[in-house]
C-alpha cells in the first residue's frame, strides 16, 4: 500500500472510532481520554492534553498523556485573550510562533514540557477549551494535511465535550425538577392531611376518620397491585372523601340520635359538594373528585348521588366506600358502640355484590389476614383498630372463610 | 523461563528482559493491558522490553498512542524497547508514523533477545 493511502486509511479509521467515542454518553473522563488517544495515535504525537473551560475564565485539564498531570491543572484566560483567540479563528496556535496573549503568558511553561501546538476547541462561537499537542514521533514538522486532520478531530472532541456537558446539565435540571416535584407533593400531602383533620374536627365523634379511610384505601389498593402513584392518589382521595361535609350543618353531623329524612337528605349532599370543592383543584393524582363524589354509590344502584350500577362506579370509589363503611362500623358513634369484628365480617359478606365489590372486600380481608397471622411486619390495620380488637382466635378463620366464600361466588354476592 | 498470563496478555522474562505478547488486534482494550504489563515488568526491574507482534494483524490509532506511551515509560526507566515479528503492513505504519525512530525492530523474539543480550551489536531494523 502506498504510504499516502495507508495514512488515509489510518486517519479514516481513527475518525470513525472518534465519531463513535464522542457519541458515547457514558463516562465523560474516559470519553475525553480515549478521544485524545485517537488524536495522538493518528499522527503519532508523543504527548497531549485536553483542557476545558470550567467556571469563570478558568481552564482545567480533563485528560493528559505523556505529561505530568500536576503541570496542567489550571490556566487562567482573561476575556480579552479569549476574544483574541476567537477573532483570530486560527485552527492552531504554534508555541513559540504566535502573538496570542494567552500563549505568551504560558509559552515557557508549555514549551518546557514539549507542547508544540495549542488547538482551540470552539463550539457554537464559544471557546470551550484547548487541546495541547506535543511533537510528532517522526520528528517532522506538522504538514497542512496534519493541520486539517487535527482541526477535524479537535472539532469532534469539542462537540463531544459540549454535548456531554449539556446532557449533564439536563440531567441535573431533571433531578432538581424531580426534587421540587417531590417537595410539592409532600406539601400537597401535608396540606391534604391538615384539611382532612379539619374536616374531622367538624364531627366530634369521628375524629381521625378521614385519615383512617385514606390509610385503609391505600392498603387495599396496594393489595390489589396498584402502582405507587395510584396508591398515593387513593390515599389522598380517602383523606378528602368527606370534604363536602364542610357545607353540611354541624348540628346534623353531630346529632346524637338517628337523623330524620330531611336531615338525611341534607347530609347526603356531601359527596356532590365534595366533588364541586375538589374539581377546580389541579390534583397531582387522577380522579380524586370522582372518588369523593361516588363513595356512597352501591353496586345495586341504590346509592347516591347518581344511583350508579356496579360497572359505572370507578374502582377507586368502591375502595373508598368500603374503607369508609369499615371505619364507620369499627369506631364508636354517638348513638352506638362499635361492632364486633365477627359482626363486621358478617356485614361485609352480606353486602358484597350489593353494596361492596367482592374483589375489594377480598383484598381488604387478605391485607387484614396478613397482619393478623404475621405474614407481614406491618401492623397498620391492627394499630388503627386499637389493642385487642383483632386478638380473637377466630379472627383468621373468619377472614379465610370470607375470602373463600367471596372468591367462590360470582360478583362476590353471598347470601347472608 | 516463567510464563504468566493475564486475561489476554502473555509475558515472560529472560534475565532482565521482559517479552510481552501483543494480541491479534492492538486497540484500546488490549493496548491498555499491554501497557499495564510493560509497566509492571519495568517496575519489577526489567531493563529491556521485547513486544512480540507475531499474532498481531492490526494496530489502530489508540494502539499507536499506547505504544508511544510505552516507549516513553521505557525511556524514562532507561530501558530499551524492541518490537519483534511485526507484519509488513504494521511495519509500514510504524515507519510512516515515525515509531521506528524510537524502537528497533527484530525479525522475531530470538533475534530481539540476541540483540539485547549482545549490547555492542546494533539492533536490527528491518
Overview of the structural elements:
The complex is a heterodimer of chains A (416) and B (126). Chain A is of the alpha+beta class. Chain A is 56% helix and 9% strand. Chain A is built from 16 helices and 6 strands. The longest helix of chain A is centred in the middle third of the chain and has 59 residues, at 144-202. With 126 residues, chain B is of the alpha/beta class. Chain B has a single domain (2-117), classed as Transcription Regulator spoIIAA. Chain B is built from 4 helices and 8 strands. In chain B, the strands form 2 sheets. Chain B has a 6-stranded mixed sheet, sandwiched between helices. Chain B has a two-stranded parallel sheet with strand order 4-6. In chain B, helix 1 (28-43) packs parallel to helix 2. Chain B is globular. Residues 1-6 of chain B have low confidence and may be disordered. Chains A and B meet through helix 1 and helix 2 of A and helix 2 and helix 3 of B.
Q: In order across it, which strands form the biggest sheet of chain A?
A: 3-2-1-6-5-4
| Separation, N- and C-terminal Cα atoms of chain B | 27 Å
Kindly report the oligomeric state of this protein. Answer: heterodimer
**Morphology call of chain B:** globular
CATH homolog superfamily of the largest domain in chain A: Hypothetical protein af1432
Strand order of the largest sheet of chain B: 1-2-3-5-7-8
Mean pLDDT of chain A: 89
Uncertain stretches of chain A: none
Beta content of chain A comes to: 5-15%
Rg value of chain A: 36 Å
The chain-level structural class of chain B is alpha/beta
Which percent bin holds the helix content of chain A? Answer: 55-70%
SS-based class of chain A? alpha+beta
Amino acid at each position: 500500500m502506498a504510504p499516502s493511502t495507508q495514512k488515509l486509511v489510518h486517519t479514516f479509521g481513527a475518525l470513525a472510532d472518534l465519531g463513535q467515542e464522542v457519541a458515547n454518553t457514558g463516562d465523560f473522563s474516559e470519553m475525553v481520554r480515549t478521544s485524545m488517544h485517537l488524536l495522538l495515535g493518528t499522527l503519532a504525537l508523543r504527548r497531549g492534553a485536553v483542557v476545558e473551560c470550567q467556571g469563570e475564565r478558568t481552564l482545567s485539564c480533563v485528560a493528559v498523556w505523556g505529561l505530568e498531570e500536576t503541570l496542567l491543572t489550571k490556566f487562567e484566560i482573561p476575556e480579552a485573550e479569549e476574544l483574541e483567540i476567537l477573532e483570530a479563528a486560527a485552527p492552531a496556535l504554534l508555541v513559540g510562533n504566535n502573538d496570542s496573549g494567552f500563549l505568551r503568558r504560558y509559552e515557557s511553561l508549555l514549551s518546557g514540557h514539549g507542547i508544540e501546538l495549542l488547538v482551540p476547541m470552539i463550539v457554537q462561537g464559544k471557546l470551550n477549551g484547548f487541546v495541547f499537542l506535543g511533537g510528532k514521533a517522526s520528528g517532522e514538522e506538522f504538514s497542512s494535511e496534519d493541520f486539517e486532520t487535527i482541526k477535524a478531530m479537535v472539532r469532534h472532541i469539542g462537540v463531544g465535550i459540549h454535548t456531554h456537558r449539556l446532557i449533564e446539565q439536563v440531567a441535573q435540571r431533571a433531578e432538581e425538577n424531580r426534587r421540587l416535584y417531590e417537595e410539592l407533593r409532600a406539601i400537597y400531602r401535608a396540606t391534604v392531611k391538615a384539611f382532612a383533620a379539619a374536616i374531622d374536627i367538624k364531627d366530634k365523634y369521628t375524629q381521625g376518620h378521614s385519615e383512617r379511610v385514606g390509610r385503609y384505601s391505600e392498603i387495599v389498593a396496594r393489595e390489589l397491585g396498584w402502582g405507587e402513584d395510584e396508591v398515593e392518589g387513593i390515599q389522598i382521595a380517602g383523606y378528602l372523601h368527606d370534604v363536602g361535609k364542610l357545607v353540611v350543618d354541624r348540628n346534623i353531623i353531630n346529632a346524637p340520635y338517628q337523623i330524620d329524612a330531611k336531615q338525611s337528605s341534607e347530609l347526603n349532599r356531601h359527596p356532590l359538594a365534595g366533588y364541586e370543592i375538589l374539581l377546580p383543584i389541579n390534583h397531582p393524582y387522577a380522579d380524586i373528585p370522582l372518588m369523593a363524589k361516588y363513595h356512597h354509590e352501591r353496586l345495586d344502584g341504590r346509592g347516591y348521588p347518581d344511583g350508579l350500577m356496579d360497572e359505572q362506579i370507578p374502582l377507586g370509589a368502591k375502595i373508598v366506600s368500603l374503607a369508609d363503611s369499615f371505619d364507620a362500623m369499627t369506631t364508636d358513634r354517638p348513638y352506638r358502640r362499635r361492632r364486633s369484628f365477627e359482626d363486621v365480617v358478617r356485614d361485609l359478606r352480606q353486602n358484597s355484590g350489593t353494596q361492596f365489590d367482592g374483589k375489594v372486600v377480598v383484598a381488604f380481608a387478605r391485607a387484614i389476614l396478613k397482619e393478623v397471622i404475621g405474614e407481614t411486619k406491618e401492623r397498620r390495620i391492627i394499630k388503627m383498630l386499637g389493642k385487642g380488637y383483632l386478638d380473637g382466635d377466630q379472627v383468621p378463620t373468619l377472614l379465610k372463610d370470607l375470602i373463600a366464600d367471596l372468591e367462590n361466588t360470582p360478583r362476590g354476592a353471598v347470601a347472608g | 523461563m516463567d510464563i504468566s498470563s493475564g486475561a489476554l496478555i502473555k509475558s515472560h522474562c529472560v534475565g532482565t528482559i521482559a517479552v510481552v505478547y501483543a494480541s491479534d488486534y492492538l486497540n484500546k482494550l488490549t493496548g491498555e493491558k499491554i501497557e499495564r504489563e510493560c509497566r509492571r515488568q519495568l517496575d519489577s526491574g526489567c531493563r529491556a522490553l521485547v513486544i512480540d507482534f507475531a499474532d498481531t494483524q492490526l494496530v489502530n490509532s489508540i494502539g499507536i498512542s499506547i505504544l508511544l506511551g510505552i516507549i516513553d515509560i521505557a525511556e524514562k526507566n532507561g530501558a530499551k524497547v524492541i518490537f519483534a515479528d511485526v507484519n509488513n503492513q504494521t511495519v509500514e505504519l510504524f515507519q510512516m508514523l515515525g515509531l521506528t525512530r524510537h524502537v528497533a525492530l527484530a525479525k522475531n523474539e530470538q533475534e530481539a533477545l540476541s540483540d539485547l543480550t549482545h549490547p555492542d551489536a546494533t539492533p536490527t531494523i528491518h
